[in-house]
Amino acid sequence: xxxxxxxxxxxxxxxxxxxxxxxxxxxxxxxxxxxxxxxxxxxxxxxxxxxxxxxxxxxxxxxxxxxxxxxxxxxxxxxxxxxxxxxxxxxxxxxxxxxxxxxxxxxxxxxxxxxxxxxxxxxxxxxxxxxxxxxxxxxxxxxxxxxxxxxxxxxxxx
Amino acid sequence: xxxxxxxxxxxxxxxxxxxxxxxxxxxxxxxxxxxxxxxxxxxxxxxxxxxxxxxxxxxxxxxxxxxxxxxxxxxxxxxxxxxxxxxxxxxxxxxxxxxxxxxxxxxxxxxxxxxxxxxxxxxxxxxxxxxxxxxxxxxxxxxxxxxxxxxxxxxxxxxxxxxxxxxxxxxxxxxxxxxxxxxxxxxxxxxxxxxxxxxxxxxxxxxxxxxxxxxxxxxxxxxxxxxxxxxxxxxxxxxxxxxxxxxxxxxxxxx
Lengths: 158, 255
Hints:
The structure holds 2 protein chains of 2 kinds. Chain A is α+β, with helices and mostly antiparallel strands. Chain A contains 3 helices and 10 strands; from the N terminus they run αββααββββββββ. In chain A, strands 3-10-8-5 form a 4-stranded antiparallel beta sheet, with helices on one face. The radius of gyration of chain A is 17 Å and the shape is elongated. By secondary structure, chain B is an alpha+beta fold. In chain B, the strands form 2 sheets. A 7-stranded mixed beta sheet of chain B has the order 1-2-3-7-6-5-4, with helices on both faces. Chain B has a 5-stranded antiparallel beta sheet with strand order 11-10-9-8-12, with no helix packed on it. The interface of A and B includes residues 53, 88, 90 and 119 of A. β7 (about 125-130) of chain A pairs parallel with β6 (about 120-130) of chain B, so a sheet runs across the interface.
């Protein structure tokens, strides 16, 4: 079963309104269960900069958050462990500009292994894997802003 | 080289655990290790010399032997990660206050926490968030340097270069630890609003300052328009849009 197929099942569950869907094909089986929708993120709305004269949202705060979060929920249903940002900040894939990323898609990671850095006003936060698994998804580009609770990585537990 | 007189510092703050090394890779690494072992909040690791002093994002901190003050302080604060970034502003205020108290020179603060004297950086602060909510605050103050490597010369200064006189590091460290305690207490007792207000008063960078912000893959330019409630810097760009700066190196542009 491919990720694409799993995504299709998630879409099916979302659109049909059923609470649970279980599909078996050969050796692989997937169960998708609907969970209560996440609380809306209010962080963005609190920024006074956004209430500026021309109502243009600050580029640093808004753009990547919404689609990534939706996708994150979908992936979560597909048994990926989603690593989320504990603070508002800037996402860095490597310890310094130009250095190799901490992790790449397909890498196997161990609990405690550093996945990325989130910087907020010179507070450096190394984000670590909480489970052993394979990095299946990365939701954020290097040096991009992230919101509180925004999905950073999807890890398939081993 | 004259080593730091640790007994003098310990006598001034007898309650505090202070470790001092003649030389170490980075006080950040040592402090993080002590924090993982469960050392109390307020524990200090300092060194006369760092061979791998850390700056932001893999940059180094120039740590010439015995001419600067290089310390890392472990703090365990009852704050959620979301409430911690404003701590970096409080630490900038603390470093500036300690410098002014000891030398009498006025300091400026460049968001988020570079301490400037005469427009040049004389102290830098980096904070590392560790597991279990502990943080390590690394503070480097240029004290008695008489020169810097050519690449730092235009942007760095020391207390000695700024005033023409030498300073002992001990009174500066004692003042720094007291100031860190006092600004952390303000943050915890009065909340981030007070820190933001004090920072806005102390910094010429918070409003009406034309700056460039280095964000790694892009550089934004504009005029500063104050801090948002989290302490992030509001930048009004040339096209009139506002961008919230959550991280990045700020440097002045000609008006």
